[in-house]
Amino acid sequence: MSNTFAITIDGRAVEVQPGESVLSAARKLGLDIPTLCYLEKCGPLNSCQVCLVKINGKLVPSCGTKASAGMVVESETEEVHEARRTTLELLFSDHVGDCLSPCQRLCPLMLNIPVMLRHIQSGRLSEASATVRQALPLPGVLGRLCHHPCEQGCRRGQWDDPAAIRDMEKFVTDQEQEIGAVHLPLNKAGSGKAVVVIGAGPTGLAAAYYLTREGHAVTMVDRREQAGGTLRDVPEAQLPAAVVDAEVALLARMGVEFKLRAELGNPLTLDGLGRGFDAILLTVGELSKDEAARLNLPMAGAALKIDPNTCQTPLPKVFAAGSCVRPQKQIIKAMAEGRAAAECVNRFLRGEPSRRPEKTFSSIMGRLDPAELKTFIQSSKSGGSVSPCDRCVGHTRQEAVTESARCLHCDCHSSGNCVLQHYAQVYGADANRFKSERRKFEQQVQAGGIIFEPGKCILCGICVKLCEQAAEPLGLAFVGRGFDVRVAAPFDEAIERGLQKVADECVKQCPTGALVFAEKHAESAND
Ligand code: SF4
Ligand code: SF4
Ligand code: SF4
Ligand code: FES
To answer: Which of 111, 117, 155 maximizes ligand 2 atoms within 8 Å of its Cβ, making it the mutation to test the pocket?
Structure first.
């Protein structure tokens, strides 16, 4: 230990060994410097350049820079973060892939649609239920009434008909009734905070669902005899009352307490509720000027005045969302507003600044050309949409399996496990900032189950190095020149031939979805 020395990172001293890198020193301080091409056993490859820090006025990669006595390093400054963000954005200028499928990106509640469809296709209905209920507050209702914006963006629609996504959602909730198994998400540990949500329509019910999951004690107040608000006005043929009843019962099972036939006014005042609860969320539907005045809440035009970024009214701990703030025509949008308000309230209760949920990062490939589309179509079931034999009953199991098998699985095999996607989210990268004309989508499906997608390879060099270290008989190498450099097995052999010994390790360590095992995707439940 005698020859250790100290360096300073962001004003904090840290002891390092001779030969140690700045990255390793920063990790001792608990700093999360992003790395893509760094793997301890491979040593610094210096290819990705996202691990930047500033030393002596210069930005340098921390993985390949050795610490020296007295060194002063800047890591978590806005300038360094901006440089890392730009490096990530440059990687996306030539990245061919969709982290999230187009349908999921278009769902205001971000249901992981391809995962749901894979579950249905393989008959794993409990998992389908879990996937649906993980994202949607009232899927039984949405499966009937949603205007399905997801289907408008469905890639399958470019070929014949879009996947019948909404019908599949309904199928899953119908099956839950049939098999008597509903898979509700787990709530976080109790926060000790209590929220009252006033108005049990679509926005309020959705907000109650998300707040309960966050571990808060939620009480719902509504003046009607039953919870559901405007959902109770929908004709039975479109939305059976029993479906609303079942969804409300599930919210109660999650822990939401319902107080019905209770109206804001006397004795239920905002002041009084403010003494009993840590936050109040108003989702009361359209309010008249008189009603707002009685509550002491200012109006802007015909709606309550709130801060649109935080959903906060001028009254302390009182939030508002839904039609009392802006008329809500679409049920999914009304629920998405409930989700946004719940996140604002959740942050407030946890002592953080209120804000709406962040968008999940996704690289976006855009429209496919006919040849690319064909690549996607090849692995799916041919034929147009499967209509249920009996419209009133909906899809049978077999019909649902056939319909789900039409999905092209547009999501990336690595989404949720991809290091590049992770840091793009952390750094708020804009995938389109440096977008130019993209390469063609290409997918090499190898006999032994490896899939290689060159458009997602960032040329980090990890797989090449691992092959070299393991003395792979053939191995992988960088081939080509300039912009055409790519990873390949020598002599035009299949990638798999190059990976006789270290296929597992290369797939595991690849920081993107460029190298994956096919069956992992088929079974994917990574939601
Ligand atoms: S490799 Fe990563 S960044 Fe690229 S599409 Fe897949 S999940 Fe997104
Ligand atoms: S084909 Fe499947 S994954 Fe692709 S957009 Fe349509 S439903 Fe989503
Ligand atoms: S395929 Fe190899 S070089 Fe390309 S990103 Fe994955 S590990 Fe890096
Ligand atoms: S250059 Fe340091 S992690 Fe890639």
So the answer is: 155
The position carrying tokens 């060994």 is 17
* 143 vs 238: CA distance, rounded Å: 11
Cis peptide before 511 (omega within 30 of 0): no
CA–CA distance, 524 with 326 (Å, rounded to integer): 38
pLDDT of residue 337: 98
User: What is the C-alpha to C-alpha distance for residues 123 and 99, in angstroms, rounded to an integer?
Assistant: 25
CA 162/CA 153 separation, integer angstroms: 8
**Rounded to 5 degrees, what are φ and ψ at 369?**
-85, 165
Nearest to 486 by CA among 517, 420, 442: 442
Contact (CB, 8 A) for 128 and 200: no
Encoded amino acid at 71, one letter: M
Query: Looking at residues 67-80, what average pLDDT do you find?
Result: 97
Q: Tens of pLDDT along 430-455?
A: 999 998 888 899 988 887 789 999 99
Sheet containing 194-198, strands listed edge to edge, beginning at the edge strand earlier in sequence: 257-260, 217-222, 194-198, 279-282, 318-320
Residue from 486, 512, 516 to probe ligand 3 pocket by mutation (most atoms less than 8 Å from CB): 512
The set of protein residues with a Cβ atom below 6 angstroms from ligand 1 is 95, 97-99, 363, 412, 414-415, 418, 420-421, 456, 512-513
- In the 8-state DSSP scheme, what is residue 65? -
Spatial distance between the Cα atoms of 487 and 86, rounded to a whole number of angstroms: 24
pLDDT at 200: 98
How are strands ordered across the β-sheet holding 444-445? 444-445, 450-452, 515-517
- For β-strands 58-61 and 194-198, DSSP reports them as unpaired
Query: According to the 3-state scheme, what is the secondary structure of 103-148?
Result: HHHHCCCCCCHHHHHHHHHCCCHHHHHHHHHHHCCCHHHHHHHCCC
Short-list 115, 189, 187, 108, CA closest to 152: 108
Angle at 257 between CA 255 and CA 258, to 5 degrees: 140
Residue among 494, 485, 435, 432 at smallest CA distance from 458:
485
142-187 pLDDT, tens digit per residue, is: 999 999 999 999 999 999 999 999 999 999 999 998 888 899 999 9
Length of the chain: 527
Q: What is the mean pLDDT of residues 317-341?
A: 96
